[in-house]
Structures are given as structure tokens and as C-alpha cells.
Specification:
By secondary structure, the chain is an alpha+beta fold. The chain has two domains: 72 residues, 2-Layer Sandwich (Alpha-Beta Plaits); 97 residues, Alpha-Beta Plaits (2-Layer Sandwich). It has five helices and eight strands. The protein has a four-stranded antiparallel sheet, with helices on both faces. The protein has a four-stranded antiparallel sheet with strand order 6-7-5-8. The longest helix has 18 residues. The radius of gyration is 16 Å and the shape is globular.
């Protein structure tokens, strides 16, 4: 498990590859994901020890120059975030479902982390910028009050950055809507 993770988003795919190389040469970090995302943006996702991640991100932001969109660093990331990025967690019964949608991948991950740390909820999934116009969303499940608390914690962070698209809390959702069928 990585102590810290970070994401840089860029407007340029070509610059993205260059920035990823700069980041990896700057500090001892692991490249977790390095790919284009919709709509023609690029995402660099790294992990490692806190100081190495910080140094790598600073170098990446400088190298990104005018192609920079957003970035984030999370120290001591909630352990359910990375598995949710890789797939969908299924649940037998869900009392409430919260969905938060943002304009930024980095902001979605930070907000989900804040929500998971604020309340006793489980993350169902994270959908990061593919086939949704560069936006990102995540869904949380649990008791109604806990889901509302977790959604509010994430939304508060997103609003500070001005990147909130929308959020909902659905009590007693039908199971069919919980899993992303795209």
C-alpha cells in the first residue's frame, strides 16, 4: 500500500507522456496509471512515500506548464479507493446510495477519500473520465444518514475548487441502478 498517491491531469496527451517521464525521474514513485482520458486529456497517477510523491508532483506541475488542468495529493489514502478505481464493489443490500459527479478526476478521488473518512460508508465504484466527457463520479453506499454525511464531506471539498457537477442521495435504491452498466 502506498502512503501517498497523486494525480496530475493535463490538456495534452503528448505533454502527458513527457510530464510522466519527468515525474518518474524526479523521485522514487510508482506509476499506477498513465493514460489518455476523455475528452482528449491525460492522467498521470502515482504512488509512493509522501515526500517522494510531493517532489514528483511539483516537478510534474512545472513541466506541465500551460497544459495543466488539476492535481491532487492524498496522504494515507483510504484503502478502499484504489480497488474502487479498478472495478466495482458489489453489495447485497443498500439502504442508501450517494452519487457525486465532478468535472475533474483528481477532485473526485479527493472527495471520495474525504467522504469515506467522514462517515461509515462503503465505496461502490469510481468512474474516471472515460466516455463521460472528462468528468468523474463515484458512488457510496450505507445507512441514509451516513451516506448524506459522506456526500456532504466530499461535496464541500469539490465546491471549494468550483468543480461540482451534481450530487444525489437515493434512499432504498433499486439494485439494478447501483452497478454501472456502461
Amino acid at each position: 500500500m502506498h502512503h501517498s498517491v497523486a494525480i496530475l491531469e493535463l490538456y495534452s496527451i503528448a505533454r502527458g507522456f513527457e510530464v510522466a517521464d519527468v515525474m518518474l525521474k524526479e523521485a522514487d514513485v510508482e506509476l499506477l496509471m498513465n493514460r489518455s482520458i476523455c475528452p482528449g486529456k491525460f492522467m498521470i497517477f502515482i504512488g509512493g512515500e509522501s515526500e517522494a510523491v510531493r517532489q514528483s508532483v511539483l516537478a510534474g506541475e512545472k513541466a506541465a506548464d500551460d497544459a495543466y488542468v488539476d492535481s491532487m495529493i492524498i496522504h494515507n489514502i483510504h484503502p478502499d479507493i484504489l480497488p474502487a478505481i479498478s472495478g466495482t464493489n458489489e453489495f447485497d443490500e443498500v439502504e442508501a446510495l450517494g452519487i457525486v459527479e465532478t468535472f475533474s478526476v483528481a477532485t473526485a478521488i479527493e472527495a471520495a477519500d474525504a467522504g469515506l473518512k467522514a462517515a461509515d460508508v462503503k465505496i461502490v465504484q469510481m468512474h474516471l473520465a472515460m466516455a463521460i466527457g472528462g468528468k468523474a463520479y463515484y458512488s457510496l453506499a450505507g445507512e441514509v444518514a451516513a451516506v448524506r454525511e459522506a456526500v456532504d464531506a466530499g461535496v464541500a471539498y469539490i465546491k471549494e475548487k468550483g468543480l461540482l457537477v451534481h450530487q444525489v442521495v437515493i434512499p432504498n435504491p433499486r439494485k439494478e441502478i447501483i452497478i454501472d452498466r456502461i
